[in-house]
Give the backbone structure.
Amino acid sequence: MVRLRLLRSIRAQLVLWSLCVNALLLIGLGVAVLFIFERLQANQTDTALQLGASQLVAVIDSNQDHLTIPDEDAALLAGRGLFAWVVNPQGKLDATVGRAGRLKLPSVASSTLAFQTIEVTDERLRLYAEPLDATGGALIIGMSLDESERASRTIFVVLAFAIPSALLLSSVGGFFLANRALRPIAAITAQAKRISRENLSERLAFSTSKDEVGALATTFDEMLDRLQATFESERRFISDASHELRTPLGILKAQIGLALSRPRTAETLSQMLRAMENDVDRMTRLVETMLRLTRAEATPLRFQSVDLGDLLAGLVTQMQPLAAERHIILSLTARSGARISGDPDQLVQLFLNLLDNAVKYTPDAGKVAVRLQQNQQEWRIDIQDSGVGIAPEPLSHLFDRFYRVDTSRTRETGGFGLGLPIAQAIARQHGGHISVQSQVGTGSTFSVFLPIINRFSIASSVSFQSKESL
Ligand code: ADP
């Protein structure tokens, strides 16, 4: 089991792979070297035989049908390790050179040029036969292959020791190199194991190394940054939500305690219950809004083609009675055919939150204008109001969950500080975002940017003026 795990480790696999590749390469190289060496040796032997033969042919004499070789030429050839038989036209052996005298005349086809390798008592001989055109008869010249075979064997033995030694050395080297390269990974693993939910602020901080391992550690640290931010935001959300629920629950508990403290008439009890009902309603709304936020952040969208112009026109119509009640001029400038791929329910939620705020935070007889326009590769929807406006400092927290600019004022309007985070989450789910510009006393403009997925030809221009409907 342990051995198996060891084999599965990157270090062992690196060493094994390099060992296999090196072994294949070295063995291939060894075989090639041996093969080429033997070929060269064989060529050299054959050339030496041919050269010796032509030298012999030049000096062979014919004396009354008896072929002879001058002694000094025979000695010269024998000194080069060559031996030869000279056969007369009748097929009888006339002369020999070197050790040929001690060897049996081989049966080589001497009428044609021919090479042949034969074995004589544990020794291999290379022979070359050449017909003697001038005198008739033939010449067979030979050479022992012992020396070249010994040289081949020596090379084989050297390779047989050198290749395993080289493999062993390269494996040891590879093992140390792999160890060195992987040591930081082991350190990262150990450190990463220590990081848990409780000490999520710890980092690997391996920034000294600029190699792949350093890049891995940096990426891991960045992932921890994001995880920590998410954890902290979740923790804040839970604590804010608990805080938000605790107040009405406390009031409810006090009201129940008061109601039960002494006997009361049915009318007083029903009055008290109505007050309690308001708090329960508020808590129900809070829980529903929180659910909407989770849904906006986590539920996958059901994408379909949505006409933003039509969607905004429907919403503005829906908001008209509320605006009219407070003499607010609500207008829409939009082109129909502004299509995006999106989730219509979520998009309605997004624009409803912004429109609701615009109307809510605009004093009576103010103005709220909704404009849809194309901005390069995205649709831009501005919701501009002539309302109270927002100071620069709160502006930067506007999209934080449970953030309200003026808590007492927003309590009156029933807000929980979740409308804008929900809208932003929906915009992000659609690949877009919301930005805001505002000036205290002048008004605010919330701009929604949504990427254009599909743009149809602009058929008509719809300008919806709420004044006309008022
Ligand atoms: P709420 O439900 O409390 O309105 P939001 O997340 O929608 O929560 O808004 C957060 C805060 O931003 C609000 O408390 C409000 O003070 C401020 N705000 C939002 N929209 C506007 C606006 N159009 N004009 C002025 N203030 C705004």
Summary: The two ends are 82 Å apart (CA to CA). Residues 353, 357-358, 361, 385, 387-388, 390, 398, 403-406, 410, 415-420, 444 surround adenosine-5'-diphosphate (CB under 6 Å). The first helix runs from residue 2 to 8. The chain is about 55% helix and 20% strand.
